[in-house]
Amino acid sequence: MGGKKSKSEAPPPPLLSNPWRTINWGRRQDALQYVTDYKPQTEGQQLRILLHGQTGAGKSSFINSVQSVLLGRMYSHALVDNTSHDTFTKKYTTYKIQIGSSDAFYPFVFNDIMGLDPKKGVSVEDVKLALKGHVKEGYKFNPESRLSEDDPFYNKSPTANDKVHVLVCVIDANTVTSMSDSILHKIRDIRTEASQLGIPQVAIFTKPDEVCAEIKADIKNVYKARSLKEKMERFSANMGIPMNCIFPVKNYHNEIDLNDDVDSLILNALRNIINFGHDCINFSKSSKR
Fold first, then answer.
1. The domain spanning residue 277 has which CATH number?
2. Which H/E stretch holds residue 268?
3. Contact 46, 107 (CB under 8 A)
């Protein structure tokens, strides 16, 4: 009787009354300056960020979006394929970002790898080797076998710059709840290896505008959307990645001009990724003393 819900009871509204996470939408320039000013404590140190995740989640698009924001114009260095559901990234590739029109580059780099797929995706063992710095630039991933130690693309003596300092799992927010058990197991396996190596992990939720019409109408609703928050919470519970390490980001896709609010989400995620990587570098150095 008293505890029964009425059949005609209306569902909760799609937007929360208040955002569950605050972001300074009007302070894009401050966030950009923070990233631009970042310098590792050691001269020549390079912060390496490795992206992995399901095929088609937007790993390459995230790299392009970051480069677009930092360069102040649309940029497409990491190749993206919109015509196939197959993974487009075949080789281990490092992306450096030029600082303005100078000959200098930002002290952080991105590595893109073949997507995780139940049958044809990157070998989990190859991802683990990449985390340790054993994979050389240009290595062509083979879903059937891992990189062997006698292969010319195997780096036998990785330096501190070769090793990964932040592992970023890129997730399609629109399909996160329908990912296969096989993909989820691979993500957990890679995350476990990263944890044992002391590498911090971040998750990027792409395509949030496809989850909620209110986000599509106004990207500022991203931290008010009930459905997106629930998806992030579910992923956090399944993978063990804390909510404060999960960031929704809208990659540039159809746009031909930059948008301050889209930039703000990208820069917010990038700033946190840099901070986590910086802490990883410093911890590694202090633990060797």
1. 3.40.50.300
2. helix 260-288
3. yes
Are the beta carbons of 166 and 271 closer than 8 angstroms? no
- Find the domain containing 266 and state its range: 43-288
For residue 39, count other CB atoms closer than 10 A to its CB. 11
Chain segment 118-141, per-residue pLDDT in tens: 777 899 999 999 999 999 999 999
Residue 271 lies in a domain: yes
Q: Please write down the long-range contacts of 82-85, taking CB distance under 8 Å and 24 or more positions apart.
A: 85/55, 85/56
Give the Cα separation of 56 and 82 in Å (integer). 9
Identify the H or E element spanning 273.
helix 260-288
The H-or-E segment that residue 203 falls in is strand 201-206
How confident is the model at residue 174, as a pLDDT? Answer: 93
CA 159 to chain centre: 23
| 19 lies in some domain | no
- Per-residue pLDDT tens digits for 241-278: 999 999 999 999 889 999 999 999 999 999 999 999 99
- 189 in a structural domain: yes
Report percent pLDDT > 90 for the chain. Answer: 75
Helix (H) or strand (E) holding 234: helix 226-239
Packing angle, helices 124-131 and 181-196, rounded to 10: 20
Number of domains in the chain: 1
CB 51 within 8 A of CB 164: no
* Beta bridge mates, 154: 135
